[in-house]
Specification:
Layout: H1 2-25, E1 38-40, E2 44-47, E3 54-57, E4 75-77, E5 82-84, E6 93-95
């Protein structure tokens, strides 16, 4: 019985660990973000700038119910195409990745 509990615990840590890590990374933006410093917010790889951080989504598609995270200048991969965010979600420009 103890082996089963240990295996269950290990599987939970293995599979749920990345979920919790990604959720907490959102709060890890450096407070004194030097220009050019990169950080991960849980979905986007961001680069600190003087005005507003420039972020590029790595694999997270645009959420149709919450379009706020995708700002002009950001990009995301929708599973098939690389898309560039527009202030109007219906006007995002998408193209194939050049590999």
């Amino acid at each position: 019985m103890k082996h089963l509990q240990l295996i269950t615990l290990l599987l939970a840590v293995l599979f749920l660990g990345p979920v919790f890590t990604e959720a907490f990374n959102f709060f890890l933006r450096p407070t004194s973000c030097a220009i050019g410093t990169q950080w991960y917010n849980g979905c986007n790889m961001c680069t600190c700038t003087a005005d507003d951080d420039y972020c590029t989504a790595m694999i997270c598609p645009r959420d149709p119910d919450n379009n706020n995270w995708c700002k002009p200048g950001q990009a995301y991969f929708n599973g098939n195409l690389w898309c560039f965010c527009h202030s109007d979600p219906k006007k995002d420009v998408c193209r194939k990745l050049d590999l």
